[in-house]
Specification:
Layout lengths: L6 H4 L3 H11 L1 E9 L2 E7 L6 E9 L8 E9 L1 H10 L5 H9 L3 E6 L6 E5 L10
Antiparallel strand pairs: 1-2, 2-3, 3-4, 4-5, 5-6
């Protein structure tokens, strides 16, 4: 487990944590809402841990299995305040930096590839989908 969250939202098993996070986290702010890109702030109802959830899809117009990426990054209270104030003008480079500095939950489904769900750390590139 990490220094963030509880056993439900940040438990060791990534598949179980993702199932919980996608169905149980409460959305507190919607920063960006576009058809292929979304950024929202969410909160765990069990422990009140805050997260930023980032969804990106890249449509390639062939085959119908477009690449989709979903990252859930735990946040501090100060980070929530800063991101909420940025609203739809959220700085994507700084957002990615948050995800590279700590463990994050990632669901990666590249075009033509297998879907992987894992806890990751390291660089997180946040780009708007299309």
């Amino acid at each position: 487990m990490s220094e963030f969250g509880c056993a439900r939202c940040c438990g060791d098993d990534a598949l179980t944590a993702l199932a919980y996070c996608t169905t149980r986290l409460r959305e507190t702010h919607r920063l960006v809402e576009r058809s292929h890109f979304g950024v929202s702030l969410r909160e765990c109802p069990e422990c009140a841990q805050a997260f930023v959830a980032i969804f990106t899809e890249f449509v390639d117009w062939t085959g119908g299995e477009d690449a989709q990426f979903f990252d859930v990054v735990p946040l501090t209270a100060a980070e929530v305040t800063s991101l909420a104030a940025q609203g739809s003008g959220v700085d994507l480079v700084k957002l990615g930096a948050l995800g590279s500095a700590r463990r994050r939950l990632a669901s990666d489904w590249p075009t033509g590839g297998e879907k992987t769900i894992a806890w990751r750390s390291g660089p997180l590139s946040v780009r708007e989908g299309y």
